[in-house]
């Protein structure tokens, strides 16, 4: 079992600090973001946990982080709940039978899946306990690395932690569970003068009527939330918080990577003023009131709101309907020549992003930008 560790550093003079969270095995995205922010070895680089799982480059991501730390003492990697949970599942015999269930749930990605591929193990034929031992042996060097990682980093005016701290003066005594998997930190807050910088939950979860993956800088709460939903949400981005400081003085800026194809409007698209409705975690359950050819009229169970959902986003499980992912019913207005990002094509409609607004437009109104 991994244990909580606390590191405190004080930087005197000018510095630049780049903070990235929840890479989730998307190494290509991570490298592209480092290039975009012009990361250099004299920068401080802080990775706020959950750098594994969800994607297909878990082992490669860990090795790349180790390479970065070997080249610079200013790189700090913080433990997240994914690293903690994975090590516990593989290391603890009582979880041997859960590994197959876990693999079926997460799909193609993750460290265990990569280990099985390297070891040529067929999960349908291998005894679960024998398989767990083999996986544990293969991943031992990675788990040894996890054991060196802190759960808290104090850095001048900032506290960096994966999920949050408990709202108490002796916050250093927050439970490991709170530090790496708290889900209510943005609501409960903290009582410190410093900013607390977290990942863990996608920032879009904090918006009632919009999908927005940008970094949240809440000066009143002194909370900065930076998880852009990479590997978790179909609409996502990998964020970087950039702190430019001189002792206790600092400025904040942000950058992101969102690798989506660009399209251009070929006509003006006018829409009437709308009230935007959103479905998001954890309130995905809906009741289908009237099925339509393209969109169905639904009632969101938690809120009671009634609005239309694209049929491709609806699925039935145990006789209950759910929305597949974050969803908004917003119809995007466009001017001819405007460039947008394409999330997906669903029948005659496209799900697009325009100036960080997400919504629907007919696909025939768009053409791809070469």
UniProtKB/TrEMBL annotation:
<dbReference type="GO" id="GO:0005737">
    <property type="term" value="C:cytoplasm"/>
</dbReference>
<dbReference type="InterPro" id="IPR050126">
    <property type="entry name" value="Ap4A_hydrolase"/>
</dbReference>
<feature type="domain" description="Calcineurin-like phosphoesterase">
    <location>
        <begin position="16"/>
        <end position="166"/>
    </location>
</feature>
<dbReference type="Pfam" id="PF00149">
    <property type="entry name" value="Metallophos"/>
</dbReference>
<dbReference type="GO" id="GO:0008803">
    <property type="term" value="F:bis(5'-nucleosyl)-tetraphosphatase (symmetrical) activity"/>
</dbReference>
<protein>
    <submittedName>
        <fullName>Diadenosine tetraphosphatase</fullName>
    </submittedName>
</protein>
<dbReference type="GO" id="GO:0016791">
    <property type="term" value="F:phosphatase activity"/>
</dbReference>
<dbReference type="InterPro" id="IPR029052">
    <property type="entry name" value="Metallo-depent_PP-like"/>
</dbReference>
<dbReference type="GO" id="GO:0110154">
    <property type="term" value="P:RNA decapping"/>
</dbReference>
<dbReference type="InterPro" id="IPR004843">
    <property type="entry name" value="Calcineurin-like_PHP"/>
</dbReference>
């Amino acid at each position: 079992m991994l244990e909580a560790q606390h590191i405190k550093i004080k930087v005197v003079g000018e510095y630049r600090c780049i903070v990235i969270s929840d890479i989730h095995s998307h190494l290509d995205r991570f490298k592209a973001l480092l290039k975009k922010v012009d990361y250099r070895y004299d920068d401080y680089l802080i990775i706020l946990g959950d750098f594994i799982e969800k994607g297909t480059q878990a082992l490669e991501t860990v090795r790349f982080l180790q390479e970065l730390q070997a080249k610079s003492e200013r790189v700090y990697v913080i433990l997240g709940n994914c690293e903690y949970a994975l090590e516990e599942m593989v290391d603890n015999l009582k979880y041997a039978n859960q590994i197959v269930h876990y693999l079926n749930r997460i799909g193609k990605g993750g460290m265990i899946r990569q280990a099985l591929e390297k070891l040529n193990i067929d999960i349908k034929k291998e005894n679960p306990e024998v398989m767990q031992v083999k996986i544990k042996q293969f991943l031992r060097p990675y788990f040894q690395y996890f054991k060196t990682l802190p759960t808290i980093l104090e850095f001048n005016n900032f506290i960096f932690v994966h999920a949050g701290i408990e709202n108490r003066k002796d916050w250093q005594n927050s439970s490991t569970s709170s530090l790496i998997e708290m889900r209510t930190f943005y609501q409960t807050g903290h009582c410190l003068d410093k900013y607390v910088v977290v990942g863990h939950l996608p920032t879009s979860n904090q918006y009632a009527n919009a999908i927005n993956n940008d970094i949240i800088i809440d000066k009143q709460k002194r909370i900065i939330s930076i998880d852009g939903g990479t590997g978790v949400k179909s609409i996502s981005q990998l964020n970087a918080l950039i702190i430019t400081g001189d002792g206790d003085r600092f400025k904040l800026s942000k950058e992101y990577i969102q690798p989506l194809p660009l399209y251009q409007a070929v006509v003006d698209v006018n829409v009437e003023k709308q009230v935007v409705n959103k479905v998001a975690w954890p309130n995905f359950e809906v009741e289908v009131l009237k099925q339509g050819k393209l969109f169905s009229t639904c009632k969101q169970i938690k809120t009671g709101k009634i609005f239309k959902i694209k049929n491709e986003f609806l699925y039935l499980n145990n006789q209950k309907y759910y929305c597949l992912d974050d969803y908004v019913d917003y119809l995007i207005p466009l001017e001819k020549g405007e460039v947008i990002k394409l999330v997906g094509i669903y029948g005659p409609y496209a799900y697009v992003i325009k100036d960080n607004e997400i919504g629907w437009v007919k696909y025939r109104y768009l053409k791809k930008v070469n």
